Amino acid sequence: MTVLGIVYPTTQELLTPNRDWVLTHDNSGRLAGALWQEADERHSLSTLYREDEAYFYGFYGQAFSKRDNTEINQNDLREITLKGPSLLTAKFWGRYLFVCFDKVAKKFICCCDPSNQWAIYWSWSERHGLLFSDSITCLHQALKDLGESPTWNASFFTTWLRTGSIQSGEMPFERISELPPGCAIFYTHGHQPEMLPVWNPLASATKELASQNPYEILKNYLSLQMTSHERPVLELSGGLESSSVLLALRAVAPAQQRIACAHYYNSAVGSSNELEHARRVAQSAGAQLGEIDTDVLSFAPVKHLPRVAKPHIRYCLLAFNQHFASRLEERENSVLISGHGGDSLFLAPPPFGVLADAMLTLRWRHLFRIALDLALIRRTSLTHIAWQAFKAAFSADPSEGVSGAFGLMSREAELKPLDGRSHLHPFMQKTKLRLPGKLYQLFLAYLSLDDVRTPAYPFKKGTHYPFLCQPMVEFALSIPSYRHFDGPHNRIIVRQSVSEATGYTHLWRRNKGETSGIDLLGIRQHKEHVMAHCLDGFLVKQGYIDPIKTRTAIQESCKGRSEYFMDILHLYAAELFIQGWQ
């Protein structure tokens, strides 16, 4: 559904009669808030409202008890209203949006699920009050209707081009923010709103959680979240995560239910073709595999540019994903299931900081074995491993090294300072934890959760991400970082769990397809298109980008040189995002 909310409005302009508003007033009789909702295909219309003399609250979506999977009820919501949204994230998981008005204290609280399946965007000014919506286009239009059309946020683009990810809530539009996963908006009338974490993923990742089983968590998610009327299709690469989801889906689905999978590949590029692995696991699970051989490469021209909340590096695949979605919709598949996120949560490959974690937690007897395993996986020397671990122990930024410096920026834009932690999640900025491997794991978890906000696939009903549900994230973080690999195998926790439960041995394969070559081939095949977007776009005209450096980078990439690829990818994604709104 689409939800639009107004908190303590200073003007009645948006309260038009063509919308069916739900209104609530505080104890002084002043209008405290107005809520409007409209059904769509992406979210459930399930809604719980309750109002008394002291409180008004609304709950959209579904949430289940972590203890026994019972669905949240009115009594639970009443307790959460009294004690705060931290209780909601501590006791329940799901896909939801929660709003609460304290009519006596004139306070408002809004939060959504930590798995980021329900986005919230908000804006505040003394003129119009606090506006929020789960649709960026709805909120953007509401501000335009008030005569306050948002302008571009220059600091966002300079930071995003350098880092590739902004998880702090900053948006490409001035005066619009997003609610990061596990955070809530707290607003008291007469004051400015605050955005604070209400989910402590490290405190939730208790030692008791470490005894759980990722395969059982997958089955639990699929049995509770997949409704009988949905026609899901699993994106099946044949890798560890998608294979695990398929085996879990087979375990919870009725024996007679047909399970649909889809595998896409380019038969002309052998290095990226993993079809044999997808066929093997589909046959083992008795699933129907749709094989989509497509010649749509990265950076292909896009027929329709969607309006999304912010740029995403997977925008280079937007044309391909639109083609993929149209092929699936021809087969009447309405919901996609993706294994995305598992590789980040279970560290593949692990960072050098895990050796520092073992040292700082006094795991002295295991240091040599951990160092040997790291050297085996990274194919480097023990001396290099030890030096990188030492540097990681003193690093202030867990994202350091994930995204390198952006090399296409103009000299004027480079002079603007960049706070190395400003783009991190609010919880990451405030946590006192100093275990570099664990912080890197948490950074990747937030990075994967942030991916959910910008759909890679233009499916009408969205995508299920079983590996990014709250119980799975908390379980992954409960495991010490140095236990996620063993010998030549990474993501060992998932491999062992699924293999022992299903007997499927192919999860232990070590060969994997490679995609960097096909991405560079896309730049070469669509050189003129990439040139036009990157050299004639908004960012060059505004002076952010050096056109000479950019032209050289594209020309060299067409020759197969990969050192410029990430810079071109960031620039192309930002320009495509901007064009979607112009």
From TrEMBL:
Coiled coil: none annotated. Pathway: Amino-acid biosynthesis; L-asparagine biosynthesis; L-asparagine from L-aspartate (L-Gln route): step 1/1. Gene3D superfamilies: HUPs. SUPFAM superfamilies: Adenine nucleotide alpha hydrolases-like, N-terminal nucleophile aminohydrolases (Ntn hydrolases). GO terms for molecular function: asparagine synthase (glutamine-hydrolyzing) activity. One of its GO terms (biological process) is asparagine biosynthetic process. Its EC number is 6.3.5.4. It catalyses: L-aspartate + L-glutamine + ATP + H2O = L-asparagine + L-glutamate + AMP + diphosphate + H(+). InterPro entries: Asn_synthase (IPR001962), ASN_synthetase/amidase (IPR051786), Ntn_hydrolases_N (IPR029055), Rossmann-like_a/b/a_fold (IPR014729). It comes from the Bacteria. This is asparagine synthase (glutamine-hydrolyzing).
